[in-house]
From TrEMBL:
Organism lineage: Bacteria, Pseudomonadati, Pseudomonadota, Alphaproteobacteria, Rhodobacterales
Keyword Ribosomal protein: no
Primary site of residence: periplasm
Chain ranges of the SAF domain: 18-76
Family, per entry: Belongs to the FlgA family.
Name by which UniProt lists this protein: Flagella basal body P-ring formation protein FlgA
Length: 139
C-alpha cells in the first residue's frame, strides 16, 4: 500500500488536454465540409473526431449544430449521383463495352450501389457509381 502511495506521489498528475472537432456554425445535412465549417475545442468525447483533415471534403449526413462534437457517423463521402439525374450507364464484358443513358433512381457516392433505369428500354438495373459520375452496371 505504501509502495502504491509512493508511486502515485512521484508520478506527475496532469489532466489530459483532449480536443474534439466541433461545428463552427449551423451546417445543414448534405453539405460538403470546409475548414471554415469546423473548429477544435477542448473536450473529452471519445466518439468525437479530433482531426479536421479527416472531415474536410466529406458530406454531412445530418444537421450539425454549433459547438457540438462531430462524430464519424455524422459524415459520409459526398454524393456523385443525385436521384433523377441523367447518367451514363456502362456495361463491360470482355472486350465489349456498351454505353446508354439512364436515370438514377437513388443517390450515391463513389462506389455506392444505385438503381438506374435505362431510358431506351425502361428496364431497371443496379450499378456502382464511378469517380467520373458514370454508373457501371453489374453483370
Amino acid at each position: 500500500m505504501r509502495a502504491l502511495a509512493l508511486i502515485l506521489a512521484l508520478v506527475p498528475f496532469s489532466p489530459a488536454a483532449a480536443e474534439v472537432l466541433v461545428a463552427a456554425r449551423m451546417i445543414p445535412a448534405r453539405t460538403v465540409l470546409t475548414a471554415a465549417d469546423l473548429a477544435v475545442k477542448p473536450g473529452d468525447n471519445p466518439a468525437a473526431m479530433t482531426d479536421p483533415a479527416q472531415a474536410i471534403g466529406l458530406e454531412t449526413r445530418v444537421a450539425l449544430y454549433p459547438g457540438r462534437p462531430v462524430h464519424g457517423s455524422d459524415l459520409a463521402p459526398p454524393g456523385m449521383v443525385e436521384r433523377n439525374q441523367i447518367v451514363t450507364l456502362v456495361f463491360r464484358s470482355g472486350g465489349l463495352t456498351i454505353r446508354a443513358e439512364g436515370r438514377a433512381l437513388d443517390r450515391g457516392a463513389i462506389g455506392d450501389p444505385v438503381k438506374v433505369m435505362n431510358l431506351s428500354s425502361r428496364n431497371t438495373t443496379t450499378g456502382h457509381v464511378l469517380p467520373d459520375g458514370m454508373v457501371m452496371v453489374d453483370p
